[in-house]
Every structure is written in structure tokens, then in C-alpha cells.
Amino acid sequence: MQPRRVFAIAGLLLVCSSARPATQPADAYLTWTASHAESVGRGSYKPGRVGGLFDTRILKTERSYNYKLAATWLTPDVIRATARLNQLRSRLSEDAARALVAEAETVEGTVVMVEIDPREGSGVIPNDWEAFLQPRGRPDEAVAGVVTPRLREVKALAGVMRRNYDYDRFWVVFPTKDASYLRMDVQEVELVVRIHEKEGRVSWLTPSSLRTVATR
After folding, report:
1. What span, in angstroms and rounded, lies between the C-alpha atoms of 61 and 51?
2. Of 57, 69, 162, 167, which residue is least crowded by CB atoms under 10 Å?
């Protein structure tokens, strides 16, 4: 083979190799700094409000006239960020951090941590409030979630945000099988929280790593 051809082939192989997307090892999160883990976890936190800013109680003092809302989509990256912070703060071994991730990922479905703070009024959150995930702007494709109190004890599902005790926390699980919000064509996912006749919304760009879950 002529030298020029050898060099040309070698150069082509080098270009092809460098063009391949780099894949992170499964345990890459175990090397994250605390600040990086916090940044990853905060990226999934969304504040909002149920009801209008200028809503008033009128005569219904048994109800709050609106509610502060916050939600954290507990994606695989957020779970790993939370486990990593637990590892750093509690001096855990790498195996213990992996166990936190494994425990969180035994939950079947998409987990969203919903935080609600009633404004003036009764200060009570009714038991019949509802939460839905849907492609943004498509209420006909909404998927209802189930409040799952036992997840309060799963450390890697606590998120990275400092706890604000003005808010009550709820862990809501949404099914992923054939879920509309995880379809390949959906670019933005909306969480709708309904309390009495009032609704609030927050939204996220769909994490590409989760879109294939709907077909499992």
C-alpha cells in the first residue's frame, strides 16, 4: 500500500473516532463535586403557583385563595446528584451511594416531588388535590399521578434543595408505560396541579434519556 494511502486511511479513522459521542461511565456521578451535584439537582426544580396572583378569598375562608407551588422531576441525574450529596455529607462509601441510587430506581414510574404552601385562608391542603403530567398544552393526553407517601423515606428521592418547612411535600408517581409525555415527539412536559377549582402549571424540557422508557 502506498504511504499516502496509509496516511489517508489513518486520518479518516482518527476523524471517525473523534466524532463518536463520548459516553460517561455509569459511576461518573461518584466523582461529582458538591457544587456540580447541586447544580444538576437544581436544574429540575421549578417554582409555580396554583390559582391567580390576585385571587381573593371572598367568603370562602375555609379555603386558601391560592397556593405556592414547587416541583422537582426526580430524573436519573437528579437521583444521582442527591445520592452523591448524601455520600459527601454523610461520609458514605461508594457502595452505599450506589445502594441509594438502586433503592430510588426500584420505583416503577416517573416520580415528581410536589411542594405546596397554602396562602391566606384556612392554610389546609385538601386531600383530594390532583396532579397530572402531559405534553405541554395537551390536556387530553394527561396522565394522572398517585401520591405515594412511603417515598418520603427514600433518601435519593429527596432532591438537593434545602427544605422549606412552609411547604408540605408530596411524592407523586406517574406511570411510564405508553405514557404520552415520554413520546419521542414531545419536547416539553407539563405538570398540572389542581386544588379545588384552581390549577397551577410548571414545565420541563423532556430529558432525552427518559423518552425510551415509554416503550419498555
Report:
1. 15
2. 162
Whether the Cβ atoms of residue 94 and residue 27 lie closer than 8 Å to each other? yes
What is the distance between the alpha carbons of residues 129 and 117, in angstroms, rounded to a whole number?
A: 13
Question: Using CA atoms, how far apart are residues 134 and 141, in angstroms rounded to an integer?
Answer: 6
| Torsion 126-131-137-138 (CA) sign | negative
Q: Pick 53 or 38 by higher pLDDT.
A: 38
In a domain, 20, yes or no: no
Residue 5 lies in a domain: no
Q: Which domain holds residue 138?
A: 28-215
Q: What is the largest CA-CA distance in the chain?
A: 91
Measured CA distances, 45 to 112, 162, 204 (Å): 10, 12, 9
User: How many whole angstroms separate alpha carbon 97 and alpha carbon 90?
Assistant: 10
pTM above 0.85, yes or no: no
| 14 part of a folded domain | no
- Residues with Cβ within 8 Å of 50's Cβ and at least 6 positions away in sequence, in order, are 66, 67, 69, 116, 193, 194, 195, 198, 199, 200
Look up residue 165 and give its DSSP letter: T
Residue 3 lies in a domain: no
C-alpha closest to that of 136 among 176, 187, 193, 178: 187
Number of structural domains (the chain) is 1
Q: What are phi and psi of 168, to 5 degrees?
A: -90, 140
Per-residue pLDDT of 106-157, as tens digits, reads: 999 999 999 999 876 556 888 999 999 999 999 999 999 999 999 999 999 9
